[in-house]
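FAQ: What does a ligand-bound record look like?

Like this one, built around zinc ion:
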Amino acid sequence: MIASTRRIAACALAAALCLFLCFGLSAVSAAKASPASRPVVVLDAGHGGIDPGVVGTDTGVRESELNLSVVKILEELFAEAGFCVVLTRTGAGGLYGLPVGSCKQRDMQARRRIIEESRPNIVLSIHQNTFPADRSRRGGQVFYRQGDAAARTLAEGIQRQLNALGGGRYEPLAGDYYVLNCTRYTSVIVECGFLSNPQEEALLCTEGYRRSLARAVFYGALAFFA
Ligand SMILES: [Zn+2]
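The answer part, i.e. the structure of the complex:
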């Protein structure tokens, strides 16, 4: 009971932080169900602002835009399922404030703070991949922190669903990334697809495919709670 109450308080804190960070960066979905029973998910749309991430080889689409689009669909799915949903960013901007100095460092530290204050059950950091050396490579790839059994289980559930989309057949991989290591919470990175693959880039540019992707990630994450 105490832990659940803390979680909801943390959601409120995260919301206050978003308002304070005036670049429209973070939000919490409104509560509907009983607060005591609601798990918390942090959805992290990678990159943003002056950092576009990888860029589509053929269309020039920015990873940061695709990440946010997938996160917005995930936000709807998780909120409808009764989760308390926290977003690290809700707009096109990054979390670094003014575009001066060590933007990337401030951006990543802001994401860590939001995760810490939200006390989430899971963190899903959404990205897109690229591998120009082999443009045939495609499909979703999930990363978890080495030695984190819970994160591996979460990653396996999501990877299974992504593989079912038909783009590729991968195992989840251990990865040494800041967003996985910066807190003790169960965190995975979801690389949704390869912007260096022409067919996948075209698919990622469609709302319908992004919805299919988001549903795959959502159902994969739900398996973790089952
Ligand atoms: Zn990325």
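Follow-up question: can I read anything off the structure? Yes, for example: Residues 45 and 68 are 5 Å apart (CA to CA).
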